[in-house]
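Input structure tokens:
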């Protein structure tokens, strides 16, 4: 039997402070965007820069940790899986969004409120990243 793999790892900077909401059943969910930049030299030696933005969704206990400790501009490592969400707009337009559903987060770079190095926070809850019914998405 063959198995698939859906795993993504990104390191970048938060585009804005995380936003936390609760599902109707009371489960916390936090969302934020992460900018990942890369640069390269073309064959003619010209320098190029490109930034890719990722929408990140975090569930459960890790969602509360992200809301409490992450701030705009902070460098962060995110690990999780890609998920495509589809919905119909108010006027019948079809919408699609690709998100990183995170199950691990590590704060990188300088800490503003402490002098120590890096701090790692991992998801320990088995229900982080579980599939939610579409009517439970608070956004």
């Amino acid at each position: 039997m063959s198995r698939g793999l859906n795993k993504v790892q990104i390191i970048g900077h938060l585009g804005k402070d995380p936003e936390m909401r609760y599902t109707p059943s009371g489960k916390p969910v936090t969302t934020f965007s992460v900018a990942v930049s890369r640069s390269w030299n073309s064959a003619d030696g010209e320098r190029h820069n490109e930034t890719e933005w990722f929408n990140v969704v975090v569930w459960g206990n890790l969602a509360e940790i992200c809301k409490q400790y992450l701030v705009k501009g902070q460098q962060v490592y995110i690990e999780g899986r890609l998920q495509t969400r589809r919905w119909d707009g108010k006027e019948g337009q079809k919408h699609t969004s690709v998100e990183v559903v995170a199950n691990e987060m590590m704060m990188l770079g300088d800490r503003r409120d402490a002098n120590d190095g890096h701090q790692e926070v991992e998801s320990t809850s088995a229900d982080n990243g579980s599939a939610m019914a579409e009517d439970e998405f608070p956004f």
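Confidence is low (pLDDT under 50) at residues 113-139. Helices lie at 60-69.
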